[in-house]
Design brief:
Elements lengths: L1 H8 L11 E11 L5 E11 L3 E5 L6 H7 L11 E3 L2 E2 L5 H7 E4 L10 H11 L6 H10 L16 H13 L5 E5 L7 H18 L2 E5 L3 H7 L2 E6 L2 E6 L10 H9 L1
Parallel strand pairs: 3-8, 3-9, 6-7, 7-8
Antiparallel strand pairs: 1-2, 1-4, 4-5, 9-10
Helix pairs in contact: 4-6, 5-6
Bound molecules: adenosine-5'-triphosphate.
Adenosine-5'-triphosphate binds next to helix 2.
């Protein structure tokens, strides 16, 4: 089974055949100004409707990998495909609507929670109704009492859920999450995890999540990418992490 999953995920690209992957990454490479390879020929297929966890030692390139997927840095053309289309050929704002991102710490805009949730659609000239805002809040596990609160009245966990509702207002097909719960207490963490699992189940959302918590990955991910020194060294199911063969991966997992 592991081999099958690995074979599927790492299947060599055939031109014109996108095999149902939501995102395909091909030889994604990033070299720093000082000529250091931050990412080195990363290849992976991210199937539609899965939660993919990305783990690895600090500085291994996890955030850099994630940020390429919605062009927070510009990957080389021909290295990242969304539904078979090179993301470099897409309008960057519409790409970021389709591929939404949530960071470690939520940064809310001035104004109320409702203003925040309405922000994205408003940029496209669409005003969300109160009912639509309430629905998005509910989707992020926030009740209607949050509607008119300001950012300053919220805990970090609540603010993170507002940030999630704001991202969901853009109706993304993919969610990129960079350690979204590392600043949260266990209950807020569980709230976010529950929402993510629900988004996957109910909406077929594709989710790519960088996490330092192996336990979290084991709770919610369907597949795990292990990144070491800018390279994907293993792609495993969460319950097979102990079977990782790469020496650095083994050391990392033992220490985690
Ligand atoms: N724009 C950049 N220019 C130069 N070096 C960079 C740049 N972005 C990242 N790096 C370096 O690339 C390496 C990978 O960084 P990245 O933040 O992707 O790692 P990470 O695995 O997410 O780390 P962490 O777990 O600590 O957040 C680090 O050594 C970092 O200093």
């Amino acid at each position: 089974m592991a081999d099958e999953a690995e074979e599927h995920l790492l299947a060599a690209p055939e031109s014109g055949n996108h095999g149902g992957a939501k995102i395909e990454v091909r030889d994604l490479t990033k070299v720093s100004d000082k000529d250091v390879r931050i990412l080195n020929k990363v290849n992976v297929d991210i199937p539609k409707g899965v939660i993919m966890g990305v783990i690895g030692p600090s500085g291994s390139g996890k955030s850099t990998f994630l940020r390429a997927l919605n062009r927070l840095w510009e990957p080389a053309s021909g290295s990242v495909f969304l539904d078979g289309v090179d993301i470099c050929e897409l309008d960057v704002l519409s790409l970021r609507r389709k591929v939404g991102m949530l960071f470690q710490l939520p940064a809310l805009f001035e104004g109320t929670v409702a203003d925040n949730v309405r922000y994205g659609p408003q940029l496209r000239g669409k005003k969300l109704s109160d009912g639509e805002v309430y629905k998005l809040l509910a989707l992020a596990d926030l009740d209607s009492s949050f509607y008119s609160k300001s950012g300053g009245e919220l805990s970090v966990g609540q603010a993170q859920r507002v940030a999630l509702a704001r991202t969901l207002a853009n109706e993304p097909e993919v969610l990129l999450l960079d350690e979204p719960t590392s600043a949260l207490d266990p209950i807020s963490t569980q709230n976010i995890e529950d929402v993510l699992v629900k988004l996957k189940k109910d909406r077929g959302m594709t989710i790519v999540m960088v996490s330092h918590s192996i336990k979290q990955i084991q709770r919610i991910a369907d597949v795990v990418c292990l990144l070491v020194n800018g390279e994907i060294v293993e792609i495993l199911e969460p319950n097979q992490l102990s079977e990782a063969k790469h020496p650095m991966a083994q050391t990392f997992l033992q220490l985690s």
